[in-house]
Design a protein that fits this description.
CATH class of the largest domain: Alpha Beta
Order of helices and strands: HHEHEHEHEEHEHEHHEHHHHHHH
Distance between the termini: 56 Å
CATH topology of the largest domain: Spore Coat Polysaccharide Biosynthesis Protein SpsA, Chain A
Largest sheet: 8 strands, mixed
Strand order of the largest sheet: 3-2-1-4-7-6-8-5
Shape: globular
Number of domains: 2
CATH architecture of the largest domain: Alpha-Beta Complex
Length: 385
């Protein structure tokens, strides 16, 4: 019986190791003051904004209004059947209509937009999702970073509507951990912070060197691997923020979560061994992306560790749970309402039930032929802070 429990404990804790290593190192690094990106005169720098949009008539106007006239804007109306293109044109954006079979998802829209923006003379291109609004300093901060020779940058990407429900409050806390705590820790350690599909920008030289040809349903993660492999670091701009919509319905949330987790599972199957081979051959720059790729979702890791407390691996499990608790605490402290964020953890059991119910969707999204599925939008664009 003891041997069986020992084997079970080992089987439960081994998959948690990549995430716990990441969280321990990055959380401790994130608590130190972030490195400031050097500022440079940017009056002549040509930054363009690219907005990929698929039937975004509900929120595209608010997005364009938050950007204003501070940079030329290209909206890729990708297989739109609503008034997205009309509204974008009325707001002064250059609309690029793209109608295809949709197989290549958002990646195809981004590649189309990057091509046109560079042809128009852009020296760097900033990607903003159509359901988002940006902080007032974002354009100037991104422009200054590129004027100071950045190759790629990622701004803070947080929830625009954390108070929509108890569920969105918990999602917003999780989002802050992934999109603020971890990249801030990576930046402090001199690592590439990653790109999150929204609020990231690439220089023209970077796009020429590494064309945006990622077409999986998690194309941002896939493209970041290509950047790191090419020796290009993504810098984290902690002072500028893009606020994106969290879905406030269970149906929309399940679609989004299945796409994220299923897409990561698909890439894990496809790329893990090749990236591990690179690391073993001395390509240590790929070690952090490998750990990130192998990391379980946080909720899954918690379940495994809780079960492991019933086995001889209980000491490891307890230490792992303490690491996660520290990570969550830091994520809450980096927000504006830490007490409300921590209180949202009372929703965690319901979230675990939601994830279990969503396993079928996640498995389907993990198939190699899975199509990109749009998340249903809310009507309220949220508040810029």
């Amino acid at each position: 019986m003891h041997l069986a429990l020992t084997i079970l404990g080992f089987a439960l804790v081994l998959p948690t190791l990549p995430l716990l290593l990441e969280l321990l190192v990055l959380t401790l690094a994130a608590v130190f003051p972030p490195r400031k990106y050097p500022q440079a005169a940017a009056s002549d720098f040509r930054l363009a904004v690219l907005i990929p949009a698929h039937n975004e008539e509900k929120l595209i106007s608010a997005c364009l209004s938050s950007i204003g006239g501070s940079a030329p804007i290209f909206v890729v109306a990708h297989n739109c059947t609503d008034s997205t293109a009309v509204l974008a044109t009325a707001a002064g954006a250059t609309v690029l209509e793209l109608n295809d079979d949709g197989v290549n998802g958002k990646g195809a829209a981004l590649h189309h937009g990057f091509t046109h923006a560079l042809a128009a003379g852009a020296q760097a291109v900033l990607v903003i999702d159509a359901d988002s609004i940006i902080s007032r300093n974002l354009i100037d901060t991104v422009t200054a970073a590129f004027a100071a020779s950045a190759a790629a940058v990622q701004t803070r990407y947080v929830a625009a509507n954390p108070s929509a429900s108890a569920g969105t409050r918990l999602q917003a806390l999780a989002m802050r951990g992934v999109n603020v705590v971890r990249p801030r820790g990576r930046a402090r350690l001199g690592l590439s912070c990653g790109i999150f599909g929204n609020g990231f920008a690439l220089s023209a030289d970077t796009l020429v060197r590494v064309p945006y040809l990622a077409h999986s349903i998690v194309e941002d993660l896939e493209y970041h691997f290509a950047l790191v492999r090419a020796g290009i670091r993504v810098d984290f701009l902690d002072d500028a923020t893009v606020f994106g919509q969290l879905p406030d319905s269970n149906t929309a949330a399940s679609t989004q979560r299945a796409r994220w987790e299923g897409g990561r599972t698909m890439l894990r199957r496809r790329l893990s061994f090749s990236i591990l081979s690179e690391v073993l051959r001395g390509g240590l720059r790929m070690l952090d992306p490998l750990l990130d790729l192998l990391s379980l979702p946080l909720a899954t890791c918690v379940v495994f560790l809780l079960l492991a407390t019933l086995t001889p691996a209980r000491i490891y499990a307890g230490f792992g749970l303490e690491i996660i608790a520290l990570y969550i605490l830091i994520a809450a402290l980096f927000g504006g309402d830490p007490l409300l964020d921590l209180a949202a953890l009372l929703q965690a059991p319901f979230y675990l039930a939601f994830k279990i119910a969503n396993l079928g969707r996640t498995r389907r999204a993990a198939r190699g032929d899975a199509a990109w599925v749009r998340t249903e939008r809310n009507n309220d664009p949220g508040d810029r802070q």
